[in-house]
Specification:
The protein is an alpha+beta fold. 50% of the residues lie in helices and 14% in strands. Helix 8 runs antiparallel to helix 18, helix 9 packs antiparallel against helix 10 and helix 11 runs antiparallel to helix 16.
Length: 569
């Protein structure tokens, strides 16, 4: 499919498999789409629209299904979560990392809540506020329209954004989206009533978004441009721009000072993460590369995936805003231009599809302009319903494509009864290396080993004589010793593909061919102490990668597994 053409390193078969799983008949996919389908159908009822017209009611009713039915999974580099959310102020999300850390700190000990679930809860709370601010924006934009039309505006942001708000990344970026919507809300308030108080609130909101994710700092030109729009003398307009700039940079400086003065020991890597949005490598592409098809085509396609079928309507509104210009439409243009410049100048570390958080937040101005066109249109709501459902499908299909499967319901599975008849004469797990991704061509004899290994070319040459030019795989199998009943969490770190089965339950199945380093955290309830069957598999073409397994429970701190934790006959 044109929109889901993957980055060049990914074989077409992987994309085809992902799209095969993103169909109504695929197990789990219909369940993931069901909440959005129900909410969109309810929008046809005027009573439902009136009931949810209050922003707090809308935010509660439209975020609750995602609190109940699905959990967040790791769709990218979740090294921070693997480290227990202690790698604070990492990269360009210092305030987001700080928020995740405190959620984890308050919930982990008393309630035995794992890092993944704590971060997932933080992001879901952020999603609630995102919807709250979207609802408030609809009241600002359409005070004269019916509740049904305002609900249509809100559903544009829900259906286009749900995959990355409630399903998506295990890391920080979703937290920036509600702060950006708060900035939009306060910017509209400023444009309608250009007081210094409204201006200061708008600038502070944008600084919060920049601290939650540095990408938002590139919206500063839109903030400065907005300061100049309301009527006034040249000096008045420049004065507003100066105040907005001072508040924006002052809030960022205050947080940076807090880090250096109060908590310098938590600065990751010995320095503060680049709060203005620096990447892992160079920050910007060369101008000659910006117009290359390999750069702009993935960006445009990813904008259409995240923005769904509503994003093109934003471009249509861009063309019609000159017919009836207003302060809001001119400001929307500045908002859009600031985002476009950022997206097309940015040097993506892994490509727009994998660095999806950067593009996902960049689609917001398109959604805003598209929703204005939809909200002011005289076309009945039912006509727009297929566009909303199509956008919901595209976002969920993308999540399946990256995750390798539809996201599972939010519950802790229970393992089968332990195996009492096993002798378990040898400590550790029985390990076999393989030369192929099907784990059918052994690279050597089976040996006893626990699954924590750091591979490099020398190690690969040792375990696979002749090397492993087509990749190296491994299988660890035996029994894990569970000391007492209760909920246990297992952490898997691997490069490429990994699969983990415990107690008859396949808890991790990331055999999807994406060659990047991914961690997964899974929880299982064990009915009693004993020995439970376990098998950990991996395969990667990378020449320097780790294979790691850790575990923890309410009674046992998180630690790397040891030989004494396992046995086999």
């Amino acid at each position: 499919m044109f929109l889901y053409d993957w980055i060049p390193q990914q074989p077409p078969a992987i994309v085809a498999r992902g799209l095969e799983l993103a169909t109504p008949g695929a197990p789990g996919f219909a369940l993931a789409c069901l909440p959005l389908l129900i909410l969109c159908l309810l929008s046809l009822s005027k009573r439902w629209a009136s009931f949810t017209d209050r922003p707090i009611v809308f935010a509660l009713t439209h975020s609750l299904p995602f609190f109940l039915f699905t959990f967040q999974d790791s769709l990218g580099d979740s090294g921070q979560v693997l480290d227990g959310v202690h790698a604070r102020y990492h990269m360009s999300e210092p305030l987001a990392t700080w928020s995740h850390y405190w959620f984890f700190k308050f919930l982990h000990g008393p309630f035995n809540i794992g890092a993944k679930d704590a971060v997932g809860l933080t992001s879901r709370v952020a999603g609630f506020f995102y919807l709250l601010f979207v609802a408030k924006i609809s009241l600002k934009l359409y005070p004269d329209l019916s509740a049904s039309r305002r609900l249509l505006h809100r559903l544009v942001f829900l259906t286009a954004g749900v995959a990355f708000l409630f399903y998506g990344y295990i890391e920080n970026p979703p937290l920036a989206l509600p702060a950006e919507q708060l900035w939009v809300l306060l910017s509209l308030s400023f444009l309608q009533s250009p007081t210094m108080r409204n201006l200061a609130a708008s600038a502070a909101a944008l600084s919060i978004a920049a601290l939650l994710h540095g990408r938002a700092s590139f919206l500063f030109p839109a903030l400065a441009f907005g300061c100049l729009i309301p009527a006034g003398s040249l000096m008045q307009r420049l004065g507003r721009a100066a105040v907005g700039s001072l508040v924006f940079f002052g809030c960022i400086a205050a947080f940076v000072s807090y880090v250096f003065v109060i908590e310098p020991n938590h600065i990751s890597g010995g320095h503060l993460g680049n709060v203005t949005g620096g990447g892992n490598r160079q920050m910007f592409v060369e101008l000659g590369q910006m117009f290359g098809a390999e750069h702009w085509q993935p960006i445009v396609r990813s904008l259409l995936i995240f923005g769904g079928l509503i994003a093109p309507l934003g471009l249509l509104r861009l063309g019609t805003m000159w017919v009836k210009p207003s302060a809001v439409s001119v400001w929307c243009l500045g908002y859009f231009v600031a985002d476009v410049v950022y997206l097309f100048l940015w040097e993506f570390d892994y490509g727009p599809y994998i660095d999806w958080d950067l593009v996902a937040s960049g689609v917001c101005p398109l959604l805003l302009m598209g929703s204005i066109l939809v909200g002011r249109s005289k076309i009945p709501t039912v006509v727009f319903l297929p566009l909303l459902l199509g956008s919901a499908y595209m976002g969920n299909a993308w999540a399946v494509l990256v995750n390798g499967a539809p996201l599972a319901p939010n519950f802790t599975p229970t393992a089968a009864a332990p195996r009492a008849e096993i002798a378990c004469a040898t400590k550790g797990l029985k390990r076999t290396y393989y030369r192929d991704g099907n784990l059918s061509e052994p690279a050597g004899p089976s040996e006893a080993e626990n699954p924590f290994l750091e591979f490099n070319p020398a190690k690969i040459a040792q375990v696979a004589p002749g090397g492993a030019p087509n990749g190296l795989g491994g299988g660890f199998e035996g029994f894990v010793v569970i000391p007492k009943e209760g909920r246990y969490r297992f952490f898997v770190l691997g490069q490429g593909n990994s699969r983990l089965t415990i107690g008859g339950l396949t808890v991790v199945n990331r055999w999807i061919g994406h060659e990047w380093r991914v961690s997964s955290e899974r929880e299982i309830r064990f009915p009693s102490a004993g020995r439970y069957p376990i098998r950990l598999e991996f395969f990667t073409v990378n020449q320097n990668f780790p294979v790691m397994l850790e575990m923890e429970s309410s009674d046992y701190d998180r630690r790397r597994v040891a030989l004494d934790d396992f046995c086999f006959d």
